[in-house]
From TrEMBL:
Transmembrane stretches, start-end: 203-220, 232-250, 275-303, 385-404, 416-443, 455-480, 492-517, 550-569, 590-609, 629-652, 664-687, 707-728
Main localization, broad class: membrane
Region of interest (Disordered), ranges: 1-98, 131-191
The protein, known as: Transporter
Amino acid sequence: MVALNDNNKMSKQTSGFDNYAFEKDSQEERNKQECVVEGPPEKENEPETSEGVLEEESKSEKSEISFLVVEVEQPDTRAVEMQSKQETSEGEIENEQKNSEKIPLGIVEKIRRLFIGFRKIEKVENLPERPENLSADGKAAELAKSPQVEISLEDPAEVENKSENTWKEGNGPERSEEGPVVAENNLDRSQTQRAQWGRGTEFLMSCIAMSVGLGNIWRFPFAAKKNGGGAFLIPYLIVLIVIGRPMYYMEMSIGQFTSKGNCKMFSKLSPMFRAIGYGQVIGAFSVATYYCSIMAVTLYYLFASFTSEFPWSTCNESWINYTEKNGEVCIDKNTNPFDQTLTKTISSSELFFSIVPSKSPFFRIDVLKQKDDISDGIGIPDLKLTLFLVLAWLITFILSVRGIKSSGKASYFLAIFPYVILIVLLIKALTLEGATDGILYFIETDWTKLLEAQVWYAAVTQCFFSLNVGFGTIIMLSSYNSFNHNINRDALIITTLDTFTSLLSGVTIFGILGSLAHEMNVEPSEVISHADGTSLAFISYPEAISKFTAVPWLFAIMFFFMLFILGLGSLQALQGTLNTAVKDAFPTIAMWKISACTATLCLLIGLLYMTPAGQYILDLADHFGGTFIIYTFAILEVIVICWLYGVENICIDIEFMTKKKVGIYWRVCWAILMPVLLILIYIYFIFTQKPLVYGDNKSYPIELQVFGWSILGIGVLQMFFWIGYYLYANRRFSAKEMLRRTFSTEHWGPDSKERTEEWKRYKEALIREREPIKGNWFKRKVAVLVGR
């Protein structure tokens, strides 16, 4: 039976659920609206007798009961409305097809629709309307299910305290059970509410600053030359198109859809999958600890560039034993190497090693204080490098002290300024003698390299570390976006700009090294074949700059400052991944406290890289933490998202979020190309592993080997821990139910409750449309790939 409160309380109640929100009306207007609904009109100037009052109350009760009964017994019209809307949309589609037949599409538009595949969805693809009995707090009171529903009307005093915000397309108020309605776009957010980028360009600039880093400057040019020169661009671009860009867009999408960092995002997808998020955080933490040590060395060179004479351009007496031991000859920059009065005959190769040695005395002795043998211990941290390490982390902490509110503002400078310096260096390189020879050597093509598996593996490695996919940083940055942000545009801009930057830096660096070869009167191959990685940034390039006749100190300052800014943009994103993981787990902790803790912890571990054995420990941490863990969990991420959760579900989520249909290019890459290629490359990576050595092919001490394997072990074994934990927690259920609960995705969805309800009904509507082809597995998979 239907239970009612007294008529006085009913007369003060708000009338229904109007547009899913409570509107602020005066008490008199609400009373007038209640009187209009199916009830008899009040009689004016009628004496209030007890019988009249009783009679009036009985009439009012009957009218209210009849109104509620009619409301309860009326059939559910949502299916009829959906069917009519579906017929209307089908009619519109037919008309659109007829019009498209009359007006032929151009070839550019056909290619865009095929590969980019984005078109606006009309009315969000038959998105069902919210039911009229849906309240403002997002909870549907299913009155139409049964006529025997007990309705308790709220007290008018509580109604007055309701929020007056209006729901509009998923950005409206979110009601929590413990507190009042809180608008998601309210600027006065508490510490427990997630921040958002102030502007969409802040997110774009932060992604550019993160992706365009040190790997573009010193890794890509020599990876390209080592693997076929100009021919390396073919496998690199193919990998970028089928793996790099689709994975970048996929991570952007799931981060923005859930508004969570990678740890919390994978936990929402399934409790067991949180191991993937934790593994990515461990990898990001490992990279952050040694990434800042490289920035400390960069600061060392930056401050050394302010001197009147570069310390690396002159010989030091303390280097004599070191150079003689390594068969090198140290020649002052003002010495003519072809002077006949020299007491030693110097070949061209010896001449190169004297000017740009593979083991530069200044870099190895003065800066790193490097040891040849670390079997007796790693030594103590160098004081100068430690101070520069503290300075680097202090700057990083200042930029991230307020989370994205501070880092977003700094992203403009971090993303744009390196391009200013890079363009200035390019112009300088093109004006140097011999630069053309170096550039031609860079683009020289060896087509036979395309048949080697190592070249394709190098292309994937470069793509991963250049775009920073698989680290969790992209998920973290996109989680602070507004729900409807255009991430497809940003993914296209960032991946294209990253490739352009790699090519630009390659031309610049090979041009300057070609000038150095001209200065030495040798072939570019003799100079460039000995330069790689850190030796490029801290040995070859500084030596080439010291040969400049006009203001060499200015170009040295610009170069090392550019390296520091590039490293700072990437390091800030890595630390942001750590901060976001902690913030999502403990939302009440202030961001500056989290940032201070992560920076301090990374600083303490970074002291290991400031020791005489620091370079060897860095290689160890990069191999196990920066490569092995990242590859492992990147493949697990792709398998879980693309195969277990499914491409169809991903596309539905993106369509609901962006109001645009996902094209066939993304679907094919996510379903087939990206997972298959990554698995094949990972297998190749495992079977081609060689024992890690340092120096002159010396094996690492057992202590450092345990340190390296511990990094990998912590990352991988915690995955099995979570599997066992959730299986044990659900042990009282049957095997089938146990697996269902362990891999349940019931918590997956947008961060807003109202938006989650909207998304579920939208998803159900699309799935019902595809019911006719559900019986045929092959046809259904093809329909998913083509987007039907």
